[in-house]
């Protein structure tokens, strides 16, 4: 049993929790809590740590066997010290990052059982709030999107808070982090995907367009919206109507309304 | 100029930031940052504090005059020490809590210029995340709701994080905090308002109901959903369809989809 913060594996977990660079270099990230750990695809599971208390649950051994991965026991206090949450839930995994090409997001959808379905993409430009990014993935899975593109100045997708707020969608929603987001959007357009910018200058109401064919939505930074350079690539600007003195909606809320409008039209 | 954390007013601000009880007792709360402070209705402004740096902006004096309230200057470091944010924006106000009756939320809408409009309400049961509650108010104003009801175990509406994420909607969206939420919902029903529960057991898809007449939506706690007692008061259970392995949507996202569906139908 691991009982010291000096343990090499514990030190590594702390680095992976805190540092984007450490995660990037090793291409792994940390997942906490039984709900999410039991959703990790087997082939992505690298290592598994459980607390003494967790093992006292009569179902624990059985559940851990299902994961098909050996585990290390850690004292409750040490697991707490390497956890990113205030109330850790006794189980933590190191997990390989999934990897997709841009083509995976809008090409054949056999992976998701949606072969032949029209692509439905989200393009995020410099979203900063981890909760927003995680919630967008979670909602996106619910709305049946085919994938999410983002630029490198979007908050790190593998930040512990992002992972937590995806509620497991991180394992299932294809994503692509573009070095050049404008080039990626041009590639979508060349593939026949209609690109819409959620924009305060939009004239068309978001529910007055036809989204039954391939479509992608550009969503901008929380404070500043889309850069003119990216917005100019859109085939149309659309807006979500707002009453009162509201200047804009939260980015995750705007994305949700657009994604569910697509879903509504395609039902 | 205030230059000490020992100053009585600074001590009071710290209490108001940290303690729900202090806010409740005095019926005031703290608002930070120019965007929100300049939206405070004049009659609610109790006192105003600005940092030395803030006053160096050439427009500052003019803007402060518009507020029609005298202000105290505070050294930058002291304002930072009483701020709830990491990067305070140099202006902070103590503001009187608005107060509404339950009838205000669904009765005459002359206040909001919506006289005669059908009520459109949200009923929140024990929402715990401050960001969710603030975002729900912000989105609610955008969707044109007539008001929000909540129970006492919902996170404090005047918590600094809630206030921040309302982006000013706290000053404009009528709310009612019920000692007995079930009794309040019964009162809505007696007034002819249709009550819908957002519920995983819902059979009807949320966009298949007619919301053009008075309606209210019950939204449950993030982890546990609605209590059976409150849910049983609903005229109908509705569900938001979800693909993939998504078990539920974030509470603010679910509320947004419902509120904007009402708006779509009423346009």
Q: Would you give an account of this structure?
A:
Two copies of one chain form a homodimer. Chain A has 267 residues and is α/β, with parallel strands linked by helices. Chain A is 36% helix and 19% strand. The first copy, chain A, has helices spanning 8-18, 20-26, 34-37, 52-55, 60-67, 76-82, 102-106, 130-143, 160-166, 181-190, 228-231, 251-266; strands at residues 28-32, 45-51, 72-74, 91-96, 120-124, 147-151, 175-178, 194-198, 204-205, 215-219, 236-239. In chain A, the strands form two sheets. The first copy, chain A, has a seven-stranded parallel sheet, sandwiched between helices. A four-stranded mixed sheet of chain A has the order 1-4-2-3. The longest helix of chain A is centred in the last third of the chain and has 16 residues, at 251-266. Chain A is elongated. Chain A starts with 7 loop residues before the first helix and ends with a helix. The model of chain A is unreliable at 109-113 (pLDDT under 50).
Task: Note the topology.
The structure is a homodimer of 267-residue chains.
Chain A: H1 8-18, H2 20-26, E1 28-32, H3 34-37, E2 45-51, H4 52-55, H5 60-67, E3 72-74, H6 76-82, E4 91-96, H7 102-106, E5 120-124, H8 130-143, E6 147-151, H9 160-166, E7 175-178, H10 181-190, E8 194-198, E9 204-205, E10 215-219, H11 228-231, E11 236-239, H12 251-266
Parallel strand pairs in A: 2-3, 5-6, 5-10, 6-7, 8-10, 8-11, 9-11
Antiparallel strand pairs in A: 1-4, 2-4
């Amino acid at each position: 049993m691991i009982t010291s913060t000096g343990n090499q594996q514990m030190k590594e977990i702390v680095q992976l929790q805190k540092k984007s660079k450490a995660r990037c270099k090793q291409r792994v990230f940390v997942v906490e809590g039984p709900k999410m750990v039991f959703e990790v695809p087997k082939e992505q599971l690298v290592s598994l740590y459980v607390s003494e208390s967790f093992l006292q649950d009569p179902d624990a051994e059985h559940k851990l066997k299902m994961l098909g991965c050996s585990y290390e026991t850690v004292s409750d206090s040490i697991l707490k010290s390497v956890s990113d949450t205030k109330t850790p839930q006794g189980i933590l995994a190191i997990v390989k990052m999934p990897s997709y090409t841009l083509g995976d997001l809008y090409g054949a959808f056999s992976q998701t059982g949606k072969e032949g379905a029209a692509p439905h993409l989200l393009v995020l430009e410099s979203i900063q709030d981890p909760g927003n990014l995680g919630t967008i993935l979670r909602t996106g899975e619910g709305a049946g999107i085919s994938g999410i593109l983002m630029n490198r100045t979007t908050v790190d997708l593998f930040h512990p808070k992002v992972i937590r707020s995806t509620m497991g969608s991180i394992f299932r929603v294809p994503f692509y982090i573009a070095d050049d987001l404008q080039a990626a959007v041009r590639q979508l357009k060349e593939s026949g995907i209609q690109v819409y910018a959620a924009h305060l200058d939009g004239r068309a109401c978001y529910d007055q367009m036809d989204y039954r064919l391939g479509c992608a939505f550009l969503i901008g930074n929380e404070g500043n919206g889309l850069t003119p350079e990216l917005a100019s690539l859109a085939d149309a600007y659309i807006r979500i109507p707002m009453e009162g003195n509201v200047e804009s909606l939260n980015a995750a809320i705007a994305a949700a309304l657009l994604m569910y409008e697509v879903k509504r039209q395609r039902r």
